[in-house]
Design brief:
With 180 residues, the chain is α+β, with helices and mostly antiparallel strands. It has 4 helices and 8 strands, in the order H-E-H-E-H-E-E-E-E-H-E-E. A hairpin with a 5-residue loop joins strand 5 and strand 6.
Length: 180
């Protein structure tokens, strides 16, 4: 009877498998910050109309708000409580993933790269999800969201830009380029 009670209680609970710790202090999720990503791109393009040069600086709060907003649009988001850290030329995505009866922390490190054509591409350099590998669906979805932030729906704003440099440090990402 004790074993049966234990099994039934386990079935009713979610098993927390742990996982990596966040790489920094929590970033408050602010819905207005998501709109700032689009506004920042638009302002940079307006300024670029004068001399053809573009500079965009985004911070962790803006990127966290943008990703959180996109995840909330999903009926069953792949990632909860997202946090975007911009440190040492790396974008780190931290959050919680919950599927079936498992819950765990996830940390994905992404190195943005500039292609020969001046486009931004994202290469996942590391992904940790508790004791198991991060699901490919989650990695693909997060990569797509980041790509969208720079070249997707907002990206019609970024489509006509040839990026010449991209730097990430101290909670900010700076993108420098020129209109094509």
């Amino acid at each position: 009877m004790t074993v049966l009670s234990l099994l039934l209680s386990l079935l009713a609970c979610t098993l927390d498998v742990g996982g990596p710790e966040p790489p920094g202090i929590p970033i408050p999720i602010q819905p207005a910050a998501a709109l700032e990503v689009q506004d920042t791109w638009q302002a940079a393009l307006t300024d670029a109309a004068l001399d053809g040069k573009i500079t965009v600086i985004l911070n962790e709060a803006q990127m966290t708000g943008f990703i959180a907003q996109r995840l909330q649009e999903s009926e069953r988001p792949l990632l909860m409580e997202p946090q975007i850290y911009l440190r040492e030329n790396t974008i780190q995505i931290y959050g919680v993933i919950e599927r079936a009866m498992l819950r765990g922390n996830i940390l994905i490190s992404i190195k943005p790269e500039i292609t020969d054509e001046g486009d931004i591409r994202f290469a996942i350099s590391e992904a940790s999800l508790g004791p198991v590998p991060a699901p490919d669906a989650l990695l693909a979805a997060l990569s797509a969201m980041l790509t969208e932030a720079f070249t997707g729906s907002i990206g019609t704003l970024a489509t006509g830009i040839r990026v010449s440099s991209l730097a990430i440090a101290n909670g900010e990402m700076a993108i420098v380029g020129e209109l094509r």
